[in-house]
Design brief:
This protein is α/β, with parallel strands linked by helices. The chain contains 16 helices and ten strands.
Length: 389
Amino acid sequence: MNESFQQASQIVRRLAEAVETLGSRARVANVRDLKSYEWHETLRQKLLPQLGDHAYLVVAVVGGTNIGKSVIFNHLAGFAASSVSPMASGTKHPVCLVPPGFERKSDLAEVFSDFKLEAWSAPERALAETSEHLLFWKSSPATPQNLLILDTPDIDSDAPVNWDRADKIRRAADVLIAVLTQQKYNDAAVKQFFRKAAAEDKAILVIFNQCDLAEDEQYWPLWLEKFCSETGILPEYVYIAPRDKVAARENRLPFYVRSWPATDESPSDNPHNLMRDLSQLHFAEIKLRSLRGSLRYLLDETDGVPAWLGELDRRSGIYRAATAHLAADKLAGSDHWPAVPNAVLVESIRVWWRGRREGWSRSVHEFYNAISDGVLWPFRKAKESIQGP
């Protein structure tokens, strides 16, 4: 956990404590309850848990058909998990691997609120043709405690229901692993998906898969530059992976880090472990990056904490003005308030009681009150003329 992550975590916790204290004291100013504000929900349900000791990343492996998504998924999972999620072109629903015990510590239904969750039982269930948006999950002892790994249907499907499903996957993920190939980096449906991801400010890691390292080293930067310019994304990290069917099948495919934007430096031949990079090396940076939108919303001048503080200031200003007025006229400090005359008190009670009578009783009393007022009017006028009102 790096210093920036720890610092952000401490600041958000202090902010949450201060907000709760101030919110409880602000009830006297007739301010809305804290739970009615969306920024408060973001603070309590997203930022505090995701900046705490049990922070995790929802990692979605996404891409078009026949590009090796399952291979990347297996390497992230740490074992041959394709039997858990047999990603063929007919797969309709995502499958998620979670660390042991995660479902007891966190609410999976809240993490994937756009899906109906089902515990994984058989690979065929992910092929089901249904209008329901299902997500199958399975606990895996090989999955790091801070990762949830999603294997997903192809995002270049021509079925409208799959487009909707892809949108829901994108919204649920903290980071998208964009699997591209020479054949698929320029696909229209794939680019459309990532345009939306760029608009949502998603963290994106790019893997150019099935490369010929000797020949494609000079070309992948051109492919990626075109992809980025037409989608608006800016990858956090870039990897290239060779075309090696044996290594892919045995789950030992090497992944090489590449600088982006590309530089003239000699490319590294030191292979990286994707799971280790995400769960350890880059976890804090990517987690902060994925929460950037929530942090910005929390600090928004119109809808966030500053707007709430402004409302508190306006409300308290009304009370400050009233207090100043009372103090200036020395009304609040008076110990000798005049006694209320009996006649005024009796008349006030009569008016109050009159407003609460109903039906026959109200008619009778109004009749007698009218007679009483008529009989006493001359005497009242005579008294006022002598004593004053």
